[in-house]
Design a protein that fits this description.
heterodimer; A: 433 residues; alpha/beta; 2 domains; 21 strands; B: alpha+beta; VC0802-like; 5 helices; 37% strand; globular
Amino acid sequence: MRCWDPRMETMPKEEIREMQYKLLKTLVYRLYSFSPFYHDRMKAQSVHPDDIRSLEDIRKLPFMYKRDLRDNYPDRIFTATQEDLVRYHVSSGTTGKPTVVGYTQNDLNNWTTSLARALTSCGLGRGDVMQVSYGYGLFTGGLGLHYGAERIGATVLPTSVGNTERQIELMQDLHATAIACTPSYLLHIGEVAEKMGISIGKDTDLRIGILGAEPWSETMRDRIQDWLGIKAYDIYGTSELSGPMFCECSEQNGFHVWGDLAYVEILDPETGESLGPGEKGEMVLTMLQKEALPMIRYRIGDITSFEDEVCPCGRTHTRVRRISGRVDDMLIIRGINVFPSQIEYALMEIPEVGQHFQIVVDRKGALDEMLVRVEVSPDAFSDKITELMKISKNVEHKLRNTLNVGVKVELVEPGSLPRFEGKAKRVVDRRTL
Amino acid sequence: MTETRNYIIKQISVFSENRPGRLAAIAHALEEEKINILAFSIAEANGFGVVRALVDHPKKAYDKLTSIGFNVAFTDVIAVKMRDEPGGLYEIAKILGDAKINIEYSYAYSGKEGAVLILRVDNAPAAITGILTGGGTLIETSVFH
């Protein structure tokens, strides 16, 4: 195993926790003293920095939300002055006002270090040519990966997004071995290449994809790996954390969250109760070393679980599983958390129905009932009622296995479910509570 | 040797949600193409149905319904002539039973030239031979389309 920083990446867990406690303590004192925003939040919750006497005491601290950044647009909760900032990034603001993130030189260094460790952990280094096909500019993806790849001595090909045919020519001519982009853009590249008569697997040197910035699934990973003949790694981050930060190691089984930079909690989104390894809940991140825009117990809204055992790759830092959904989309059906993304992924494996679906939740007496409406694909339609019933039973069975809750399935005509551009609204909740 | 294919009729089957107006949508589309419906039935299951019809121009009907988004399939059926009086169905059913023909589904109509039983069976050529041998009368494909 190659590590960027072997001492840090394989530090015994107890030492990581001690380090995290010290960093947290310092951070909380600093914020209580210098951040009017967080000072007021702590006062409102009657917490004083002296109340933090162990790492677990982090649970006493108030949460931060995306809206805190929006409400304080553009820089009112920054804890560094403009003279100390060396960069801004701005998020697109699809759900409201844009949010601005500022970086000190140390913030940029930590971000780049995090990516240097991450990229090394999936087998990249000196000698590799990394095509960065994330957008360059206000978005953090392009510049983040750019500096991370340069730091480990890889050669960066900064293609940014668009002009796909030229991207494929450059990939061939300059022998790119890795590409960083969204999984859907990589699929698009694969399709365009085929039209040009080029097989990514046979006619290029590409061997690794660093894919993120949008939700994707294990099914999609299998498809990308089989079709393009590369290894596909999941990368995670958001601008509030700095940008893309954490990436899967060679095990392809969740991303390592570097303990010196961030502390992970997984909470039950309803009760706020802290969950253990393997339990699915809302991820809450505390950035332990950020200077310009500290994020404490930040509720990003992503649903996942963590593993705390030492990874087979030898790294000791907590591993977080692929994001499986968003808190805003979560439904509670008879006490069980259900995410529309789980349904989407399950349907992808059933060719008889299309990928469009609608969820209708109702309450019959005291019981929640969930109905999933799916379109029968023209190829699967037969005159036989029994065949059609078999399809709907099969979908019911697969969904029950995935969701752990019984679901009724209704077959509908193709094209009859609403189509969405951008964010889909697939849930109709008719329960009156 | 009977030419069994002379008796095989192309039925169109249309997937339809079980809600008001779906049959009207199908019928209106067929009207627009001046397609005549000779016989039809609706089979109902959990929240959806299959509309089955014999029409004078099955290919045209298929194209039209597909173009407006319906799932359509062709299914081979056969049509047996019945006497339109008490005992007419029994006569035919007995022939089918004696010939060990299994019926998947069936529907009937009574028209100007007598009653007709439409049958969907798992093995059409065998059923055709069985019915003819048992003394039944099949309607030729050309009568429909």
